[in-house]
Design a protein that fits this description.
By secondary structure, this protein is mainly alpha-helical. Helices cover 70% and strands 0% of the residues. The protein has 25 helices and no strands. The protein has helices at 18-23, 26-52, 68-74, 77-110, 116-123, 131-142, 148-157, 168-193, 197-204, 209-237, 241-247, 255-264, 270-296, 320-346, 363-368, 371-404, 410-422, 425-436, 447-470, 476-483, 488-499, 501-517, 522-525, 533-544, 546-575. Helix 6 packs parallel to helix 11.
């Protein structure tokens, strides 16, 4: 009697459960990162939009759907004036910052300027000084009658004030000096990658230096110039501290500064603030989409051929002393003089044009290290350290998933993280307010809400920094480790993270500085127990006096310089450490 039963030894081997394998490694990682990014970024944005369509304040029972906030906001001329002022500040700052950044990048890449590495480090320092810090410094320098520059000018000439810091021009200069290093760094790569043969051909055919620059160099740089200009315009237009400090006496308000007033003074108007934030966010996201499109299509402006010819360096010749003098003056005005102004102002009891030795005091520093003020210093260090650590880890993982991942939706993860960088800080603060007021776990009013806000605000920057370190690394190392049986966790721990360690070190220090300087979201979300150095400086300017604020900002500047020194030391140490993976 025959049997149709198949012998177990002869049975066809079962196919491995690839779905289960994926769910336990890269699939789970990708899903977890998407969920976390949604929680950090999309949830506050959705809460912000919901608040703009609701009739009562967050945490209040009842309420109903309404469009009244939109009709009252968009139907009046006041909001459009605020929007115009925001665009004026953003576009003006972008024009000045792009001009400065382009000149600096050209000198660094295309001229025979000596000690380029030193200049690179010096000229990027203003990027790490917060706009709030620079605003206070220029108030110390340019306040009418009592500002240090105006006081000296008046005593020498008797001609009154040289300039007033309370002007739109001063706002644009402060923001442009802070953001021009961003343009500078953004243009170094495109200038280096440009094929110099086209410029040489133009010069050979009789095109002068200026004509070659205008007809050849600028068109090739156009996408990078526009992209960096758009990002600078977004960052300047969303800034809250500079227009609020310098524009109120002029009755010059922007959307972020008006949102702050709606939330800070009775009667508060959280629904109107949410509506203005939603409209402002929509414009910011549209600008970010344009920025991404310019980056995506930048390849169309690249030269076609084999390996591009390295750019030739132009000899500065007799202009070298003049150029170096201008660079020194720019560095002094953009970074050194403002920090010295904070130091001098923090040692005075009050602003006065008549400074004598008896005017100096350490009272502001004694107050800074007392009671709740000391708590602000500790809070700043704890928040910055914790946020930088989490941001660096998440940035590395998201960059890995977006660059090395196999998912068809990996671009959405990268876009979602970049969206967080595009959300204005004060708008993110409103979204967090609507999300966590009345939240069951009691997050609102604690350090946790600031921790979450900082992570959401700077996640895109962390992803970009870590991603730039990952791109040059060949995936062959990971493929070899995978063939030898290493899982995703082992490959990350033993291959990827050690190789991008220098980039992660840079990312950690940068995230530490960015979170230390943050004020736009913090000013909406802080409580008496969660003040930071930036909040203390802001409160001092509003209530206690500028001199105390100068002391807080100088303390912050010292921490920033220590962090930059730490980054330099870490990078040198990591560069000198033998890499056992490669060797």
């Amino acid at each position: 009697m025959s049997s149709s039963t198949t012998h177990p030894a002869l049975a066809r081997p079962r196919r491995p459960n690839r779905l289960g394998s994926r769910l336990t490694s890269s699939g789970v990682l990708f899903a977890a990162l998407v969920a976390l990014a949604f929680f950090l970024i999309a949830l506050p944005v959705l809460a912000l939009i919901g608040g703009s369509l609701w009739s009562v304040a967050p945490g209040t029972e009842g309420g109903s759907f309404t469009l009244s906030s939109y009709t009252s906001l968009l139907g009046g001329l006041d909001f459009w004036k605020l929007m115009f002022n925001s665009l004026l500040v953003g576009v003006s700052t972008a024009c000045v910052a792009v001009a400065i950044g382009l000149v600096l990048a050209w000198l660094f890449v295309r001229s025979d300027l000596a000690n380029g590495g030193v200049w690179l480090n010096l000229l990027t320092i203003p990027l790490y000084l917060s706009p709030l810090m620079l605003s206070l410094a220029w108030i110390a320098l340019g306040a009418p009658r009592v500002g240090f520059i105006n006081a000296v000018w008046n005593s020498w000439t008797g001609a009154g004030d040289l300039f007033s810091v309370y002007s739109v021009k001063a706002m644009v200069w402060i923001l442009a000096s802070h953001l021009s290093p961003y343009v500078f760094l953004s243009l170094i790569g495109p200038l280096r990658a440009m094929d110099a043969s086209l410029e040489e051909a133009s010069l050979t055919l009789g095109g002068g230096g200026w004509k070659t620059f205008r007809k050849i160099t600028l068109p090739l740089l156009w996408p990078a110039l526009l992209a960096s200009g758009i990002m600078v315009a977004i960052l300047a237009a969303e800034n809250f501290a500079v227009p609020t400090l310098l524009g109120r006496s002029l009755n010059f308000n922007t959307v972020p500064s008006e949102i702050y007033l709606w939330l800070s003074y009775e009667p508060t108007q959280p629904n109107l603030a949410a509506t203005a934030g939603a409209v402002f966010l929509l414009l910011s996201l549209a600008a970010v989409m344009l920025y991404r499109r310019l980056i995506r299509y930048a390849d169309r402006y690249r030269t076609v051929g084999g390996k591009p010819k390295p750019p030739r360096r132009v000899s500065l010749g007799r202009m070298r002393p003049f150029v170096i003098t201008l660079l020194v003056i720019y560095f002094l005005v953009a970074a050194v003089i403002p920090v010295l102004a904070l130091l001098l102002g923090s040692l005075l009891s009050y602003m006065t044009p008549d400074i004598t030795w008896s005017s100096f005091t350490l009272a502001n520093y004694r107050e800074a290290f007392r009671g709740s003020n000391l708590t602000g210093l500790v809070n700043s260090l704890l928040l910055s350290t914790g946020s930088a650590t989490l941001l660096t880890l998440l940035g590395a993982l998201i960059a890995y998933a977006a660059i090395r991942g196999k998912s068809n939706f990996k671009g959405s993860l990268d876009y979602l993280s970049l969206t967080g960088a595009a959300v204005p800080g004060i708008v993110l603060g409103i979204g967090m307010l609507w999300t966590y007021v009345g939240f069951p776990l009691g997050i609102y009013g604690t350090m946790w809400i600031l921790f979450i806000a900082y992570t959401a605000r700077f996640l895109g920057h962390a992803v970009r920094t870590c991603g730039n370190s990952l791109l040059p690394i060949s995936p062959e190392f990971e493929e070899a480790a995978q063939m030898l049986g290493q899982g995703l966790g082992g490959r990350l721990r033993r291959i990827v993270l050690p190789l991008i360690a220098p980039g992660m070190a840079s990312a950690w220090v940068l995230m530490f500085i960015f979170t230390l300087n943050e004020v736009s979201a913090t000013i909406i979300l802080y409580s008496p127990n969660t003040v930071t150095l930036s909040v203390l400086a802001w409160q001092s300017m509003q209530m206690y006096g500028a001199m105390q604020g100068f002391a807080f900002m100088l303390m912050q500047a010292v921490i920033v310089f220590l962090a930059l020194g730490l980054m330099t030391w870490l990078l040198k140490r990591l560069d000198n450490t033998p890499n056992t993976i490669i060797r």
